[in-house]
From TrEMBL:
InterPro entries: GH, Glyco_hydro_5, Glycosyl_hydrolase_5. It is found in: Cell membrane. Its main location: membrane. It comes from the Bacteria. Residues 8-318 form the Glycoside hydrolase family domain. This is Exo-1,3-beta-glucanase D. It is a single-pass type II membrane protein. GO terms for molecular function: cellulase activity. It comes from Rhizobium herbae. Keywords: Cell membrane, Cell wall biogenesis/degradation, Glycoprotein, Glycosidase, Hydrolase, Membrane, Signal-anchor, Transmembrane, Transmembrane helix. Belongs to the glycosyl hydrolase 5 (cellulase A) family. Glucosidase involved in the degradation of cellulosic biomass. Active on lichenan.
Length: 348
């Protein structure tokens, strides 16, 4: 399909994508309208990363499995490549962290059920992702990763398997992570650096200093008057934690060059291991950041990925990080964000 980037290995990698949480990972999930999907294709999107929830996957729930099958089929019929991402529920995340053997068995069981659905979907456009942000150390994750891959391979010999390093799928974690012993795989990383910029004003953990950081620009250095003003405001309010976070994360300036350097290193890992790579999460919250800073960061990350033959899927479609207002309406597309993702800069 045209959404495939060409990796250094010469193998194809899905790209030009967006994440679509809130549909097949929830009992009350909301599907995108056909008109919105069509407009997204016209805008340039060619891949959908689709989180699925382990608690909604059970052998007896044929209706739930049919929902996943039909949802993926709908996207494929619209011309999308689809990454089926095992995004662990809170319960599974807790089990993997606190009771690993139980969590590992639950993960294997979920894939044992879901692999039959995947097996019935086209290997040329459907990509199973073993586990999002595995909440464990690599020493525990790598044996589980291999078991999950073997489990899937028994029914899905031709599908390309996607996996990421533990525990955050961070770009900094891939260097110490060997690829699968499999010729048909893609390594997946996430990139949100610096989080003081990408996650400012976040709302889901009000105890985090990120919830109290606002209006920081990109690019930025710690000497910029605007940055100094923000830090002074936080210290005046007695918030040393948030002020120190900004200073620490700005010990290296936030620039396009810094981002390019990170992805050049990732490209070297890909070439050294003959393993294609996808950046399947990156994004900036749209709560309290100026539009130009937001689009500048997104453009810089997308360009850096493409310069190193790394596929990408933006996080996410229509929630806090989104590029449209609603998956149900063709109105409210953020044209500046779409331009950042598909600009006429040689990368799009």
């Amino acid at each position: 399909m045209s959404g495939l980037a060409q990796a250094a290995s010469g193998r194809a990698v899905p790209s030009r994508g967006f994440n679509l949480p809130g549909w097949l990972d929830r009992k009350d999930g909301l599907a995108p309208s056909e008109a919105v999907l069509e407009k997204l294709r016209q805008a340039g999107f060619e891949t959908v990363r689709l989180p699925v929830n382990d608690t909604l996957i059970s052998a007896g729930d044929t209706a739930g499995l049919r929902l996943i099958h039909d949802g993926v089929t709908t996207l494929v019929q619209q011309g999308f490549d689809v990454i089926v991402d095992m995004h662990p529920s809170i319960d599974l995340h807790t089990a993997l962290r606190d009771d690993f053997d139980t969590g590992a068995e639950r993960t294997i069981q979920a894939w044992t059920i879901l692999r039959d659905v995947i097996a019935d979907l086209p290997a040329s456009s459907v990509y199973p992702e073993l586990l999002n942000e595995p909440p464990m150390e690599n020493t525990a994750w790598l044996p589980l990763r291999d078991k999950l891959a073997e489990n899937l391979r028994s029914k899905c010999p031709l599908h390309t398997l996607i996996w990421g390093p533990a525990p955050y799928q961070g770009i900094w974690e891939i260097g110490d992570t060997p690829p699968l012993a499999d010729d048909n795989q893609i390594a997946a990383i996430h990139f949100y650096a610096p989080m003081a910029f990408t996650h400012q004003c976040q709302t889901w953990d009000i105890s985090s200093p990120l919830a109290r950081i606002a209006n920081l620009p990109f690019p930025a250095t710690k000497e910029m008057p605007l940055v100094l003003e923000r830090i002074a405001e936080l210290r005046a309010a007695g918030d040393e934690q948030a002020a120190a976070m900004i200073e620490e994360q700005l010990s290296t300036p936030w620039t396009e060059a810094a981002i390019a350097s990170e992805f050049a290193g990732l490209g070297r890992w890909s070439a050294a291991h003959d393993c294609p790579v996808i950046l399947n999460e990156f994004g900036v919250l749209n709560f309290c950041v100026d539009a130009e800073s937001r689009t500048s960061w997104v453009r810089a990350v997308r360009q850096a990925a493409e310069a190193n033959q790394i596929g990408w899927t933006y996080w996410e479609l229509d929630q806090g990080f989104g590029v449209i207002q609603s998956r149900q309406s063709t109105e409210g597309f953020d044209n500046s964000m779409i331009a950042a993702l598909f600009g006429t800069d040689g990368g799009g």
